């Protein structure tokens, strides 16, 4: 097959590309320029689209003897990922831009361009497995063997059309194995630190970045009784379940820690409460994506609401929303704390990813 | 074997030049040393200087050897600006064409940003011609403020050749020196430094069948230049550093040979170029020719330059698809972090950013053949078709 190996400049995508070459595919390395200022050199280990990363990726491609190109998807990325991220926060929600990027950029803009140019598929260095069913030939998305590195959560937005065109050559390996293989292959990136956080927020300070984008909007923090217990610089920058960074002037009367229970951007108010008032059992999801066939009715599944969160048992109820779109309700067996609107709930059947939805609303019971 | 159509980027070293360099490479001798080995090296350097000067109508004493075109451009512009400004603090303005190579463009922009230099960008017409009347008008506005005029002899992207002699004459009317970047011109056009009247001329080795890392700045004896690098005081105190005897030999032999072959070779290349351009237009793909072009013209447009505007395409998609088909060419413009930027030359010629993104440059040289042109034309339609579909995929909001 003719395959585009997406190469971020990191160790994972380097080994992924090498394995695709070794498997006999005709591979072309492509680095995505996603930053508006691609010429900026890395200032820290964060990020995945600096000049240095592009040069690292090129060096690996040279060693593999494959062609290498930089594709400029910065404008698409800005519109579909960065602006969406800002808009979601402005509405008091907590988006995950990695899912968005996988759905709209890596397995849409990049994949479409690759297909148009005559390629058959895109390979990435994600830790997840694709299993082809013997009976139907359908592709299933599964958790990676390395539970600590598993990235199936951020791929839970991919549908069957996208999975058919995807390769994840690292799904059966541990990170330790991948680093060792990179060193064996003589890749200079073998010891390069993992990237963390959000690639377009270089210093990792999401709240500071949002304040620069949305402006300071001072307001008050209320407790569950409606009493003012503190102040904030903009309700949009808070996330349900958050404990750190509240800067409450006094401890609560009961001495227990307070968590963000509600972010109300209309009133520019943040409501805090003790942990036991944050439990969520019922999740309303929108923007539902099924990796394969949609469940026809209520189904017992595992639900995960954060990239590295635990998977909890529950029941998923596929529904039609008022406007005729596919919607999803998930009822957890036990209440879960820190479920924020805007996050994605990804559903699992064993190791298999069934689908995902964006959390629209949560309910305690 | 891939078809190499990127001679404007670099061109293979002539075999006899490579052989002469290889023979010299193992000999010892610093051309600045006084002993026998040093004198032997010195003799090669000075004979090379005479050989090079004779080939381009300059005096040997005017030739300053450098590491290539980029250094020569930087030395000419920074060096003359600083010397002229030292002599007369009012002279802080540069008149520079908008279609220069980045070696000039970025140097000028750096001086503007870091030293408060004023820059007047000279516009060009839709064919990339900088008209002498435009320069005359800008000069007349405030001649006392001007330190230097710099306009390239021939453009590296679209191949348009300027009337350098007329531009130099305009500058001289106000007593202002004229620099020209002739990297693409030497060996490909009749370049006679004395007849052109220019005060400084940049040339490089690897665009004429010489080695990369070699070049020269021709500097008239009465032009003061503040150095960029200081050291042993070689090259009239203008360019310190141990002389690269082997490289200088290669440079001079390549320029001498290219100049001697020029008329015959350009006649051959014009035939290939015209076949390529006509062939591309005849494909009925909406392709246009960038720059000035008349069939058979070897003087107004570089003989080896074929520049195409392919509407609805991203140049980098075309490059990938042609490379995959064994054809090596270029968009002609610079990359930023590997991402092709819309060419400042095409924008200056009045193209829109979208049009400029569809630029494709095929440049022919001494190894090019009719078979290369045929292979290019055979591969182009499928590449354009796919690149157009890819552009739709990337731009769509889908």
Description:
The complex is a heterodimer of chains A (365) and B (398). With 365 residues, chain A is α/β, with parallel strands linked by helices. Chain A has three domains: 2-191, HUPs (Rossmann fold); 216-277, SH3 type barrels (Roll); 280-363, Translation factors (Elongation Factor Tu (Ef-tu), domain 3). Chain A has helices at 11-22, 51-64, 74-90, 97-116, 152-155, 160-164, 175-184, 206-214, and strands at residues 2-6, 26-33, 68-72, 121-123, 128-132, 139-143, 166-167, 219-222, 228-232, 258-264, 269-274, 280-290, 299-304, 312-320, 326-336, 344-349, 352-363. In chain A, helix 1 (11-22) packs parallel to helix 2 (51-64), helix 1 (11-22) crosses helix 7 and helix 3 (74-90) runs antiparallel to helix 4. Chain B is α/β, with parallel strands linked by helices and 398 residues long. Chain B has two domains: 3-10 and 261-395, Aspartate Aminotransferase, domain 1 (Alpha-Beta Complex); 15-256, Type I PLP-dependent aspartate aminotransferase-like (Major domain) (Aspartate Aminotransferase, domain 2, 3-Layer(aba) Sandwich). In chain B, 43% of the residues lie in helices and 13% in strands. Chain B has twelve helices and 14 strands. In chain B, the strands form four sheets. Chain B has a seven-stranded mixed β-sheet with strand order 2-8-7-6-5-3-4, sandwiched between helices. Chain B has a three-stranded antiparallel β-sheet with strand order 9-10-14. A two-stranded parallel ribbon of chain B has the order 1-11. Chain B is globular.
């Amino acid at each position: 097959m003719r395959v585009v190996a997406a190469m971020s400049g990191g160790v994972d995508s380097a080994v992924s590309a090498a394995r695709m070459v070794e498997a006999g595919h005709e591979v072309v390395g492509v680095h995505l320029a996603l930053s508006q200022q691609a010429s900026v050199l890395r200032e820290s280990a964060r990020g995945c689209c600096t000049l240095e990363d592009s040069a690292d990726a090129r060096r690996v491609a040279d060693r593999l003897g494959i062609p290498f190109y930089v594709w400029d998807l910065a404008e698409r990325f800005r519109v579909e990922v960065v602006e969406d991220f800002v808009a979601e926060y402005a509405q008091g929600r907590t988006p995950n831009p990695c899912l968005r990027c996988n759905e709209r950029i890596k397995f849409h803009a990049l994949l479409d361009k690759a297909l148009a140019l005559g390629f058959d598929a895109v390979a990435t260095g994600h830790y997840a497995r694709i299993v082809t069913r013997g009976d139907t030939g359908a592709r299933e998305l599964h958790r990676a063997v390395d539970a600590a590195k598993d990235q199936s959560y951020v791929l839970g937005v991919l549908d069957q059309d996208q999975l058919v065109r995807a390769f994840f050559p690292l799904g059966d390996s541990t990170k330790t194995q991948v680093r060792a293989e990179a060193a064996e292959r003589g890749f200079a990136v073998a010891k390069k630190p993992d990237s963390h956080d959000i690639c377009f927020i270089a210093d990792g300070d999401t709240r500071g970045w949002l304040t620069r984008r949305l402006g300071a909007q001072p307001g008050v923090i209320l407790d569950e009784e409606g009493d003012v217990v503190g102040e904030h610089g903009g309700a949009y920058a808070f996330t349900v379940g958050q404990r750190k960074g509240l800067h409450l002037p006094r401890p609560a009367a009961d001495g227990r820690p307070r968590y963000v229970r509600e972010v109300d951007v209309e009133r520019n108010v943040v409501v805090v409460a003790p942990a036991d008032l944050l439990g969520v059992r019922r999740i309303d999801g929108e923007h539902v994506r099924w990796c394969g066939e949609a469940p026809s009715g209520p189904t017992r599944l595992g639900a995960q609401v954060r990239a590295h969160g635990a998977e909890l048992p529950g029941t998923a109820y596929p529904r039609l929303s008022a406007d005729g779109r596919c919607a999803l309700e998930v009822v957890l067996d036990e209440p879960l704390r820190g479920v924020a609107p805007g996050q994605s709930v990804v559903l699992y059947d064993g190791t298999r990813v069934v689908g995902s939805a964006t959390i629209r609303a949560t309910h305690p019971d | 074997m891939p078809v190499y159509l990127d001679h404007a980027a670099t061109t293979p070293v002539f075999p006899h030049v490579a052989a002469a360099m290889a023979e010299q490479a193992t000999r010892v001798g610093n051309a600045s040393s006084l002993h026998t080995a040093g004198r032997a090296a010195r003799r090669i350097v000075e004979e090379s200087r005479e050989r090079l000067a004779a080939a381009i109508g300059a005096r040997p004493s005017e030739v300053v050897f450098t590491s290539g075109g980029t250094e020569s451009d930087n030395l000419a512009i920074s060096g003359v600006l600083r010397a002229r400004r030292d002599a007369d603090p009012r002279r802080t303005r540069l008149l520079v064409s908008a279609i220069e190579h980045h070696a000039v463009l970025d140097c000028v922009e750096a001086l503007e940003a870091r030293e408060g230099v004023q820059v007047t960008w000279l516009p060009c017409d839709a064919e990339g011609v900088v008209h002498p009347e435009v320069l005359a008008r800008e000069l007349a506005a405030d001649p006392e403020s001007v330190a230097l005029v710099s306009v390239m002899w021939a453009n590296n992207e679209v191949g348009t050749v300027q009337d350098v002699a007329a531009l130099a004459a305009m500058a001289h009317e106000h007593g202002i020196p004229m620099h020209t970047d002739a990297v693409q011109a030497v060996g490909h056009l009749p370049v006679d430094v004395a007849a052109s009247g220019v005060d400084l001329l940049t040339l490089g080795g690897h665009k004429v069948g010489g080695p990369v890392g070699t070049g020269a700045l021709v500097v008239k004896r009465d032009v003061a230049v503040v150095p960029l690098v200081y050291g042993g005081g070689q090259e009239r105190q203008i360019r310190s550093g141990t002389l690269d005897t082997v490289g200088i030999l290669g440079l001079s032999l390549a320029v001498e040979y290219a100049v001697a072959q020029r008329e015959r070779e350009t006649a051959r290349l014009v035939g290939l170029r015209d076949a390529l351009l006509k062939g591309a237009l005849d494909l009925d793909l909406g392709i246009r020719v960038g720059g000035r072009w008349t069939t058979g013209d070897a003087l107004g447009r570089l003989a080896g330059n074929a520049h195409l505007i392919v509407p609805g395409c991203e140049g980098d998609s075309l490059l990938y698809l042609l490379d995959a088909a064994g054809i090596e060419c270029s968009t002609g413009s610079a990359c930023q972090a590997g991402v092709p930027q819309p060419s400042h030359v095409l924008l200056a010629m009045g193209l829109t950013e979208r049009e400029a993104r569809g630029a494709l440059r095929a440049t022919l040289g001494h190894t090019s053949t009719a078979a290369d042109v045929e292979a290019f034309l055979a591969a182009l339609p499928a590449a354009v078709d796919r690149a157009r579909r890819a552009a739709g995929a990337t731009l769509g909001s889908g």
